[in-house]
Design brief:
Layout lengths: L1 E5 L7 H14 L3 E5 L2 H6 L2 E4 L5 H10 L5 H11 L4 E4 L1 H4 L2 E4 L5 E2 L4 E7 L11 E6 L1 E2 L14 E6 L1 E5 L5 E6 L3 E8 L2 E4 L7 H13 L3
Parallel strand pairs: 1-2, 1-3, 3-4, 4-14, 5-7
Antiparallel strand pairs: 5-6, 7-11, 8-10, 9-12, 12-13, 13-14
Length: 214
């Protein structure tokens, strides 16, 4: 089995690569590589889209990554072939219908939601939302096996996804307002937090994704 972490120059992939490789060894999930090549995305059994930075820049980089279009290969693999997919941080936000960071920008349209700025009601709460926060599980999902409400994860972001369809909201956290933490549907799942930086809970989620058979 091959898991591909897409490299579209949206941040340091080193920690994510190491975490996925470690858990792939533990659960016997085959090879994990980082690639910007559409042909690697096309042959992948599982695909991970990490991301740091602004939504429009990440979308443009994804559309322009590699020789050919990684974006086209990604859509074919996930939408047509049903390959399991995980988006992380901005990679999760790109699953939305549209983003509003700096400018309106279309997303992948896989989750019925919009990416908007976090506006906590308590002025003492700073943006970006940075650090550890406790998950609130809204509905069960295979990637959450062994993870419960109250378990914590590590966040670094100023924008979040407002999900229109409650069935696609898997978990949230409270930060002066409900902040989406995990979304998903069909063979797709996304985490606003960084599982590779979330210690035991994050590694468990990665292992669950690598073992998931939708």
């Amino acid at each position: 089995m091959l898991t591909v972490l897409i490299d579209y120059e949206s941040g340091n992939l080193h920690s994510a690569e190491k975490a996925f490789q470690r858990m792939a060894r533990e659960v016997g999930a085959g090879e994990v590589i980082v690639s910007d090549r559409p042909e690697d995305v096309a042959r992948a059994d599982r695909i991970v889209l990490p991301g740091d930075g602004a939504f429009p820049a990440c979308h443009a980089a994804l559309a322009g990554a590699g020789a050919g279009s990684v974006l086209e290969a990604l859509r074919e693999a996930v939408e047509v072939k049903g390959r399991p997919f995980m988006g992380i941080c901005v990679g999760m936000q790109l699953m939305a219908r549209v983003g509003h960071e700096y400018e309106e920008c279309p997303g992948l349209g896989w989750i019925d939601g919009e990416v908007t700025k976090i506006l906590p009601e308590d002025p003492k709460l700073k943006v970006p939302h940075m650090g550890w926060n406790d998950l609130v599980i809204d509905r069960p999902h295979p990637v959450l096996e062994g993870i419960e409400t109250g378990h914590h994860a590590y966040f670094v972001h100023s924008y979040h996804m407002s999900v229109a369809d409650p069935a696609q909201l898997i978990a949230h956290v409270e930060y002066g307002q409900p902040v989406t933490a995990i979304v998903g549907r069909d063979t797709m799942v996304g985490t606003q937090f960084h599982p590779e930086k979330s210690q035991a809970n994050g590694l468990r989620l990665i292992a669950n994704f690598l073992s998931w058979k939708p």
